[in-house]
Structures are given as structure tokens and as C-alpha cells.
Amino acid sequence: MSDPAPTVARVTTTSARGAARSTARATTKTTRPAFACTECGWTTSKWVGRCGECQEWGTVQEVGAAGVGPRTAAVVPTRSTAREIAEIEVEAARHAPTGVGELDRVLGGGLVPGAVVLLAGEPGVGKSTLLLEVAGNVAGTPRADGRPRRVLYVTGEESAGQVRLRAERTGTLSPGLLLVAETDLATILGHVEQVDPDLLVVDSVQTVASAEVEGSPGGPSQVREVAGALITAAKSRDLPVVLVGHVTKDGSVAGPRTLEHLVDVVCQFEGDRHARLRMVRAVKNRYGPTDEVGCFDLSESGIVELPDPSGLFLSTAGPDVPGSCLTVALEGRRPMVLEVQALVAPSALANPRRATSGVDSSRLAMNLAVLHRHVGLRIADQDVYVSTIGGARASEPSADLAVALAVVSARESSPLPPKTVVFGEVGLAGDLRPVVGLERRLAEAVRLGYTHAVVPAGRPGATPATGPSGITVHRVASLREAAHLVTTGPRS
Asked: What is known of its domains (predicted)?
């Protein structure tokens, strides 16, 4: 009879080998390296030559091991004590004015201590000029304890001499404004420790890099590291920080989307390169509204705020010119009077031209179709040109009626009644739809001296029957009725 011991030994050896292989596989799984794209941050468990997100070649690199399970333990003792919300002091979180009223309007009253503001815009729009103006206004003003404030302006795109020349031209040479040309993150943080400023401006976040992180300046990993370090410094020191950001060709903020989530306020600086008007609007604001717009005038001597920009959007041709119509547009919560001009001329082409500037071309095509079908305006063989004044954009639907009446006025060579503003959305059935902010639009028209307003009739009881004192409101239900006012409307 054979001894069963060898069989048991073989089974035990086989089980031990299987357990060893399982342990090796588990160890390999937990220490498997992770790879990420240095351009967009896309991650994968194995190396590939081309990024699966942005389709760039040679940008996927190993970033470390992808561990499993939580790795962060509680810190004992804690650095702060949880308190009831009613006991939290709010005086230190009040807005501090920047000295630029239009920017304070957008920010909700000014800069909040510890807040991080990202100001993005196209090259040459005036971001550095505006922030240099803000830095010069804040520098030298007294603190609560009476000491003058100090502002640290970090430039990574220009030399210190170039910024000094701009400061001379714009008149922002303040004694408390400190300037340094630096692109190393550790050195910038060292300057913050040394200077202890009341405001930090970094121009721009895409030019600053950290030696502890791989990748070129402006890459996703570098932008995340730079933004994270500056945000940590801002929160720990109650230091307001303003970051200048680049934009891509489609107008969005360059870099990873995480940057917009990390900061407290995201502002867009907009403006036509060939016009002087500049607008700042808040896309994200944790401390104020996101529907306010600040208007500025950019000139050789600097940037000037425009509390009343309506005059920039009006021509000096006079009220009796055919093809001109005035409307009141809402930029956020700010009403502004815009002038829409139209020119209708016989066309020698088989397909007449439809050219626009400041007006949506698709909405113009829709308005022309409604005019042809429901008003009987014959423009199939005519070239139509529609433009706004001063580089403004009439993009909201309430400008439909102004565009349509400007075309009617140009086609019939009949000017609109003087001191008249119109606003309303045109429907495909030839009807006029109500617009939002009717009271604010009428109040702005009264303030600027207009005496007549053509508005949609709307539903009975939905809008007030009369407007504010000083203006006569004419309510019309259809585009045909509104076009009739071009030649037979009220005259002042």
C-alpha cells in the first residue's frame, strides 16, 4: 500500500504557488503605473503614443503609481475649531473697493480678502492696462490701522522697464506699488513672504512655472500647480489675488477646466480690436452677481471707465436719416441705447448680398423673410446691409424689431419719428413678443430724453398699461402695425 504523503505535499506546493501568483498579480495591480497627457490631462493605465482626448502625439508620460484605497488620514490635532455659523465674523470678508467703479460693479463691490480673481481676454484687449490701473489705485491707500497698502505686481510677459513705461503713460506711478519680473513660482511665493502685500497681481498665470512639476509653462499640470499654490497663499494670508489668463482662439480660458473651478471669480474682458469700447463681465462670481457689465474706453493715455456708455453707440447723422433706428439693449442688468443702421440698395447679382456688423446674420435673414411674407416688403432683388454703431453687438432677441424697422425705413426712404426707441422680438408669424426688463429699458429712454417708445402689446395684464412719466408708450401686436409707424407714426 502506497504512502499518501507525497500527494499531500504536491497539493500543498501547488496551493502555495497559486497563492504566490495571486499575491504577485495583486501587487502588480496596485503598483501599475499611470500615464497622463501633459496637454489636456487625459489619463490611461498604459502608455500610448497618441492622446485619446486631444489627439496630440508624444504627450503621454508616466505620472506615478495608481494606488487603490484612501491614503489620507485625519490630522490630530486640528488647526481650527468648528464654530456655529452665527459666530463667524464677516467684517474681514467685506468687499474692498479697487478705485475703478466699473470693475467694482462687476465684482459686486470690490475685492474680497482671500479671493482669487481670474481675468481672461484676447491679446491686446487691455487686461494689463486695467490691472495696472487697479494696482496703482490700491497702492498707497490707508489700511484699517493707518498704514499705507502695498501691492505686488508680478509680470511674466514683459520686462519691468516696459511696465514702468506703461505706468508713466497712464499715470499709475504709486509709491506703494512694487514691481517684479519673475516666472518661477517658488521665487514669487518668496516675494510674497518678504513683501507681505495687500494685493497680488500675476500677469499671467500661463507664464509662471514650478520646478517641482514637469511640463512647460502653460501646460495643464503647470497651470494646476501654479493656481493651487497661489490659492493656498491667498486663503492662508487673506490676500486678494488677481490672475491674468490667456484665451484660446474660440474665446475660452486656456489651460485645464480645473482652473475656472479653483478660482473664486472668473471675468471675461471683451472688446473689438478696432474699437475703443471694452467690456468686463463676470462669468463666475462667488461674492457677487454674474449679470453685471463694466464698460471702459481704451485710449493711448490708459483705460477710462464709462458709467454712461450710451453715447458711444449713437451716430451724429441726425434723427431724420432713413434707415436708422434706436433700441434699448440690456447688457446684464445695465440698459444701453444702441443705434441700428440699415442700407437697402438695388443688386446686380443673382443672389443679393446680406451683410451684417454687430447683428446676428441668421436673425437678419429671419426678419427679412417675415418682412417679405407678412409686411409685403419687396427686397428679393435688393442688397441689405445692417450694422450697429460703436462696435456694440445687438445679439438679444429684443433687437429684432429695431433691425426690421431700420430695413423698412431704408427701403421706403422714410425716417422713423424722432426721439423714438423700439424693442421687441419678432415671431415667424409676424407677431411681436414681449421682452424682459421693460421697465428698465423705458426708464433709460426717459433719462436720455426720448419721448416715444414702440413696444410689443403682450398679453393683457402681463405688462403695465402705461410707461414712466415723460414717455408715450405705443403698444403694437404685429410687425405690420409697427412698420406702419415708420411713415404715419407719432411726431414730436
From this structure: The middle region has homology to RecA with ATPase motifs including the RadA KNRFG motif, while the C-terminus is homologous to Lon protease.
**Residue bearing cell 520646478:** 211
pLDDT cut 70: percent of the chain above it: 85
Residues across the chain? 492
- Residue 45 marked in a binding site: no
Q: Does the annotation flag 127 for ligand binding?
A: yes
Residue 190 annotated in ligand binding:
no
Mean pLDDT of 400-429: 93
CA distances to 233, 307, 392 from 313, rounded to whole Å, are 43, 14, 7
69 is in an annotated binding site: no
Fold of 93-307: Rossmann fold (3.40.50)
DSSP state of 87: G
| Residue in the block written with cell 482671500 | 114
pLDDT at 70 over 80: no
| Fold held by 311-488 | Ribosomal Protein S5; domain 2 (3.30.230)
Among 35-44, 111-120, 335-344, 432-441, which stretch is predicted with the lowest mean pLDDT?
35-44
Flag whether 58 is marked binding: no
Residue 175, annotated ligand binder? no
The answer to whether 432 touches 365, Cβ cutoff 8 Å, is no
CA dihedral 456, 458, 462, 464 (to 10 degrees): 30
The overall average pLDDT reported for the chain is 84
For 239, phi then psi, to 5°, come to: -105, 115
29 belongs to an annotated ligand binding site: no
Instruction: Give, for 421, the enclosing helix (H) or strand (E).
Output: strand 420-422
Q: State yes or no: 219 annotated in a binding site.
A: no
